[in-house]
Amino acid sequence: MPTLSRKLRLARLALLWERAWPPLAAALSLLALFLALALFDVAPLLPFWLHAALTPAFALAIAVLVGKACRTEPPSADEAARRLERDSHVAHRPLAALADDLATGDPVLWQAHRDRMARDAQHLRPGWPDPVLPARDPLGLRFAALLLLILAMAGGRSDMGGRLARAVDPYSLRPALESDTLEVWIVPPAYTGLGQTLLKPGQGAVTVPAGSMARAVTSWRGWSGSALSAGGSAAVFGENGRAELALTAGPSLDVRLGLRMAASWPITLRADQPPSIAVTQPPKGDERGRLTLEMEAGDDYGLTRAWVEVRPLEEGAEPLRLDLVLPGERLHQARLMLRADLADHDWAGTKVRLTPKAEDGAGQKGEAPPVEIVLPERIFRNPLARALVQWRRQLSDAPRMGPEIAEELRQIMEQPEAFGGDDRVFLALSVSRHMLMRPEFERDRMRSLLWYAATRLEDGGLPAAEKSLEDARSSLERALADKADAAELSRLVDQLEAALEQWMEALAELGLDQSLPPEGSAPAADLSDMLDQLRGMAETGDREGLRRRLEQLSRLMAEMGTPQKGQGGDPAAAEAMRRLRELTQRQQDLLDRSFRKAPPEDQVAPDEDTPKPRRKPSPREAAEARKEAAEQKALRQALEQLGKSMPQPPDSLAEAERSMRGAESSLSEGEWAEAADQQSEAVKRLQEGARQMIERMEAARGKGAPALLPRDPFGRTLNGSTFADDGRTKVPGRSDTMRAREILQELRRRSGQPHRPEPERDYLKRLLKPF
């Protein structure tokens, strides 16, 4: 019957509630207690281990109690019937009687009994569940937990979410950003030259170069899931507590330790800009075919290399690359100078396109707008030199003309006066002729030989000397850029000095020596001082000063070796200068031999009134003295011929001739000491004569000698209305450089002494390490 079935279900629910309510009430009491502790913000005040175990312990206890309630055994039908009969307070058990069957007896009487039980069952009423908690919780702790929760909610409603989060996360108030717990570094790419940056707690937005690395180190050991992340990338902390992440995107760099976001910094990635380069002065060429181009280049993190690409206007030709030397490392801004001698190239005299380019440490390249220019070619005044260059160009375009040009070279070689009897030119022409007579010849070698012959005919040994000097200068510049050691720099400075001396001799032969008179003059002393300074800076490791002095020396040499247009050297004056230098050198050699033959000073009487002891020379000594006298006479006669060939010989040449005549007389008598004194005077007068000749040549060209330029007390030249430092300023003087060299040598000496204490030797080695 539906009514009785509903009453049985309610009785069964009352029994189920009485069985499940105690564990559920205990679980709710624990939950109320946990929430009360959380809202009172008590959990962060506990020790770390207790705070970390609090939430899991409560959660486990609540889960066990809830599980126990869920596993409560449901009451049976008989138990529900008995509970319904008990709650209705009936005298008999009508539901049990209705479920029974008659075994024996009167059926009519049994039916009457069932009918009466059925009427009683209709009046059954289900009751409420019995209170079971007072027996289980006689102290009423459940009410205490509820009261605590009410009080906590009243006092913590303003920060309810934060307090609950701090109670659940045991790491929220731990000192995760202290230096001994977590450190985060930003490591920029090596090519930027920037140092590492330590991120500080609470630091604002951070701008980092693109490609940087983030490195984190922590001593914290906790739950898994700790990671360093940025954008969509993450790096998990390893067992050693380290994590490293490449920064490729923002907007923030985050550090998560366990369940907590320990730190976060907004980051902005700054992209590396490509380098820039621009032409500051239009390209220039001179009559010798040398190209000069001035540029400015820059990069946000520093340049690594720069070059100029030369490409002809015709398509398909391979470009020519001219490398530039950067005056330092990681330069953000640099003024670059291209000095190139392309006169012997096939493209000389043709229109080309110059494209300056630069590259930074990241491999990015930048270039300036191309500049079109006719590549300068050398102008040859010697007819034979012009012919050789023309044949050289024809052979480049049409190699089949080799036999024809070989015949032309044979005819020239039969007339030595055509090339002045120069043995080197003859040898170059001879080798070129034999190469051209073959069906196939080495094109590059043949071109080099013909170019050498043409330039030697035009300028003597100057082109070869210029090439050696430029190679020495470039080697020194590259050594500075490559951070060569002091020994290598000193060797290259010696090589530069030797090349400079050879170049000066070649200039003197052509009358182009505008700044170096004979030894002892002011410009010569300036160059000598500059070379000494270069050597001292190389030994002391002053790379920046060495670079500046080298640039000044390069400018000075360019001014000396480049005659002004229309003001080339007088061939007659150049030849006279060359002959005078040869005479001076020969006289110096005679002086050296006489000085070696002179008796020692202790054999000479100290008193002028006492006559010098005279010893009769042996036949061998007399013959040697006559030979030296004859050579001195020949030298004097050569000087007389030189004076007659000059329109206005210097006055000092006549004085030199008189000293030579006296030396000749002394040598014929075997007086080596007197001859040496007279020869020394002759050398001095010859040098004065050379100086006077150079001053006349300078006056003829319309230029004043550099030694006569106005200078201030510090040695600076006058530039307009102000004094400017041209690299020859005497403050600080050479004494400072020499003192530095002496200190460096003393440090090296002491560091090599094994008897000194080990700490002192280590200190000396640290001092010497930069050098």
TrEMBL record:
<keyword id="KW-0175">Coiled coil</keyword>
<feature type="coiled-coil region">
    <location>
        <begin position="462"/>
        <end position="513"/>
    </location>
</feature>
<dbReference type="InterPro" id="IPR012683">
    <property type="entry name" value="CHP02302_TM"/>
</dbReference>
<feature type="region of interest" description="Disordered">
    <location>
        <begin position="592"/>
        <end position="771"/>
    </location>
</feature>
<feature type="compositionally biased region" description="Basic and acidic residues">
    <location>
        <begin position="736"/>
        <end position="765"/>
    </location>
</feature>
<feature type="compositionally biased region" description="Basic and acidic residues">
    <location>
        <begin position="682"/>
        <end position="701"/>
    </location>
</feature>
<dbReference type="Pfam" id="PF13779">
    <property type="entry name" value="DUF4175"/>
</dbReference>
<protein>
    <submittedName>
        <fullName>Kinesin-like protein K39</fullName>
    </submittedName>
</protein>
<feature type="compositionally biased region" description="Basic and acidic residues">
    <location>
        <begin position="618"/>
        <end position="634"/>
    </location>
</feature>
